[in-house]
Amino acid sequence: MITLLCTVFLSLTSSVYSESPASPPAYTAETELGDQNQVFASRGSNVTLPCRLHRQHGMSFGSVGMRIKWTKLSADESLEEDVLVSMGFHKKSYDSFQGRVHLQEADDDDASLVLSDVSLDDVGKYRCEVIDGIDDVIHEVTLEVQGVVFPYSPRLGRYNLNFHDAEQACLDQDSVVASFDQLYEAWRSGMDWCNAGWLNDGSVQYPITKPRGPCGGANARAGLRNYGQPEKSKSHYDVFCFTSGLKGHLYWLVQPDKLTFGEAVQACQDDGAEIANVAQMYVAWKLNGYDRCDSGWLADGSVRYPISRPRMNCSPTEAAVRFVGFPDKKQKLFGVYCFKGQQ
Questions:
Q1: Distance CA 321, CA 229 (A)
Q2: Helix, strand, coil content of the chain in percent (nearest 5)
Q3: Mean pLDDT across 204-219
Q4: pLDDT value of residue 36
Q5: Quick check: helix, strand or coil at residue 186?
Q6: In the chain, where does DSSP find H-type helix?
Q7: Residue 250's pLDDT band (boundaries 50, 70, 90)?
Q8: What is the pTM of this model?
Q9: C-alpha–C-alpha distance, residues 173 and 276, integer Å
Q10: Who contacts 262 (Cβ-Cβ below 8 Å, separation ≥6)?
Q11: Are 284 and 278 spatial neighbours (Cβ–Cβ below 8 Å)?
């Protein structure tokens, strides 16, 4: 008998799953998982997605006919993207994973996938499939990147993005459209936002921690409000974006005078930096506790400021990234936040 053991490093409890066909099974899949089968990584880091085969006879992954296939599932799990296929000594990686993935192969039992230079697009569910003739054993593991969910709407205002515009809006902020799990975790951490936004599975939802009349009703329970899955090209909402930690730092550029938007862009460049984007401000605020009570230009033409210590005249009731608006770019009314990457 061959046993496939797939261990997730954040496990708290153990459970066992086994296939039981009428004839004796060729494999028994055992997983030590806990409530969620997840592996966490930082953006730009390397990560191992675990999948181990515990052999009880001579067959190994290099055996003739034994095939290992790693795929990545789409957000709604309706599509699979090939990541890596291995058949003995023959191995092939695909598309954006080329040059970034390989099997760990620490021993003959190891089918774990090593993924380098983790990006936001790598977040999601992966499937490890071991195939030998008619026998097929599957294990799934979810890769999460530690980061921040933030709501976004464009200069045109609230509810102006179809799904494809939403994807581009997040991409413009060095982000991706957030998943349900990411929004759920943000809600559990206290996120409360009364504007509905797209998620990457095509659903439209919003998180409420303080139920109130305009946001689903004062008597409704706290949670994620769900608008279902409207038509992607014709329906318009905001979007929830997800970004992760960045190699660099956001800072307020001290200037003697207020700046137009064009002057703000140039001032950051003259300081050896670039004007910061919205995602960079949220990362600095949420992950690093950045606090500054000065309104400043950002790359999308908006003006915002981050408050981690609520106080009068800044954000008296809550820690937040405060949104001033999208003012006329020719106005000399604001300073600027810059971002300088690590050299």
A1: 29
A2: 15, 40, 50
A3: 94
A4: 42
A5: helix
A6: 163-172, 180-188, 261-270, 278-288
A7: very high
A8: 0.78
A9: 9
A10: 329
A11: no
